[in-house]
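Q: Structure tokens for this one, please.
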Amino acid sequence: MRVVDRSRRRHDGFYFRFGLGLGLGHDHVTSDEPLPSQEVFSFFPLPLDASGGAFATTTELAVGFTPFPGVVLGVGAFTVTIPRLSAKSKDPFTGNYDFRVSQLAVIGPMVDWYFFPKYGFHAEASPGLATYVAGAGVPGTEGPLAQAHTAIGFGFILAVGYDFWIGDQWSLGPSGRFTYGATSGSSGANFTHTSYSPSLLVTLTYH
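A: Here is the predicted structure, written as tokens:
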């Protein structure tokens, strides 16, 4: 008599996921005082208060296990990389600030729930440590440089997607994700960032 392997095309056991995608990265940055500079300007700069959005690339890397049918518990790392961010400043004398490559990352525990273990519809969430690595910001006209710095705080991701089976354990599919981070750091001045990103990824999952 042939024994049927029930783990085939069923979301259970060990879990591994890798994802790549595209989206929009948005950041609102403020400083608690005017940015330090040894240059002399034709005006007195205000504290930095700028926000903007730009094209971003996104990634996901997660591992876990399945203690209950269709429910994955694990850890994940989720990134949003903004190659160039133009942020509109509230100081009319500086013009927009152009920031070099910046990245929001969320690292923490995650849960991924397949509502029907044999099928691909799932929802994912991960709260955790957020970092925002800000590239140097250059004013569009005149003003102090915003120094590159790293900010740390809290963040989370929420995602929903559908995985299509491409093998007995492997699946591939789209995932819509929202990434958020509230962080703070310093480099000459104290900075706070409120960052978010809606994005669409293609994920490859072993499960």
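A few notes: The chain is about 0% helix and 65% strand. Residues 15-206 form a domain with the Porin fold (CATH 2.40.160).
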